[in-house]
Amino acid sequence: MHVVRLWAARSARAVLRACLVVAAVSLRLALAATAALIGYLETWAQRVQAARAASSLAAARDAHAAERWKAAFEAAPLGMARVSPEGRLVAANPALCALLGEPGRAVVGRRLSAFVYPDDLAGLSRAVGGEGRGPGRAEVRLVCSGGRLAWCELATSVVRDKAGHPEYVLVSVVDITRHMRSQAALRDLATRDPLSGLANRRWFELQLAQHLRLCAEEGPRGALLVMDLDNFKSVNDTLGHQAGDRLVIEVAVTLRRHLRDQDVVARLGGDEFAVVLREGDRWAAEAVARKLVLAVRDEVQVAQGSPRVTVSVGVAPFELFPPDEAGEHLTSREVVRAADAALYAVKGSGRNGYSVAGSGEAPRHARHRPDLVADLSSAQGTPQPAPGRSRPTSAAGLR
Fold first, then answer.
1. Does the residue 121 lie in any domain?
2. Which range of residues forms the domain containing residue 107?
3. Rounded to the nearest 5 degrees, what angle is found at the Cα of 79, between the Cα atoms of 143 and 174?
4. What is the spatial distance between Cα 397 and Cα 281, in angstroms, rounded to a whole number?
5. In this predicted model, which residue has the larger pLDDT, 77 or 327?
6. Residue 97 included in any domain
7. Which of 32, 81, 101, 131 would be 171's cystine partner, CB 3.0–4.6 Å?
8. Residue 306: what pLDDT?
9. In a domain, 165, yes or no
10. How far apart are CA 97 and CA 14, in angstroms?
11. What pTM does this model have?
């Protein structure tokens, strides 16, 4: 019995000892798990704090960037605008308002197209990108305060939101009016006679060749007139070259006044002029020649004591030069040569008149033929046919 009790006591102590060991191990594990959880929670808290700090910093940075962008937008030396996808101005910087001559409150909310010259709206629609479009560029005229037009280059870029949808269109506006004027001046230098303001020889030759091609395709119409001033050298010799220059300018103004805008009036050099009549038949061309002879004689003023300046005109109606048997039409050089021959015929037979190339008729002179003077004075639109010829059905739009 004593042995049993001793064994039981020992067993109980062993069990108690094992339980204490298990409890100690479990406690240690619990403490380790608790420490790990506390560490994780501390790390998570630190991460949350860092994320909050980063978010606050990003928000501050975004706000700072927005302020900087707004400051740059307002201070930009060129015009800037934000345009909604519907085409209305959301914001306009002071430079754009100054260009338009309108305060910001009068600009914001209006359509950008309201400031664009109607003929340039197609260019605007191509430049201002909408959904699915990229950056654009166009040269348009803006209608500014008081009706003033300003040539401007528009550069556009679509700004999208995070979902990729167009949020607004950023438009930059550069005033290129001076540049466009410089280009126009260069074109004038290339095509205009600097003294008279008429077309120069190069532009005249291009226009004549173009018109002859049109005549070959659609049938001949119009005529070429070449003119040479009479007694011009005497004016230069007696009054000087400045007086000669003033005379050239006055003749140019007179010619332009008596011709249509569609006609090409050119100064070929010195006292030589030429006109390409784009419309009309031979009779209309003769009527124009008569009108110009009288206009120069009666309207161009020369200083007292100098010889009267008149004009001799050679007329080459295109209808008098049909294609040859091979179907070839006259070239510009051949037409000019024919008109020059008619001009020389006038010069050689008394000046101050006109002659029609290819007609076989003698030149007609205002000075030596009183009947022609009367004819010229009365014929303001319809030419008088020579004896034996039928009257034309139309004078083809003389002015």
1. yes
2. 79-181
3. 75
4. 10
5. 77
6. yes
7. 81
8. 65
9. yes
10. 97
11. 0.55
Q: Which residues contact 310 (CB under 8 A, 6 or more apart)?
A: 229, 230, 231, 293, 296, 297, 351, 352, 366, 367
Residue 52 has pLDDT above 80, yes or no: no
Which CATH number fits the domain that encloses residue 116?
3.30.450.20
Looking at the DSSP bridge assignments, the partners of residue 174 are 153
Placement of tokens 């600097």 in the chain = 194
Final residue belonging to a domain, choices 181, 210, 232: 181
Total domains, the chain: 2
pLDDT digits (tens, 9 = 90+) for 252-297: 999 999 999 899 999 999 899 999 999 999 899 999 999 999 999 9
The CA distance from 361 to 18, in Å, is 147
H-helix segments, the chain: 2-75, 94-100, 104-107, 121-127, 177-191, 201-218, 232-239, 241-257, 282-299, 332-348, 370-378
Same domain, 199 and 261: yes
Q: How far apart are CA 82 and CA 167, in angstroms?
A: 10
Report the pLDDT averaged over residues 69-75: 77
Cα(226)–Cα(267) distance, integer angstroms: 10
Kindly report the CATH number assigned to the domain that includes residue 217.
Answer: 3.30.70.270
In 3D space, the residue among 267, 297, 124 whose CA is nearest the CA of residue 205 turns out to be: 267
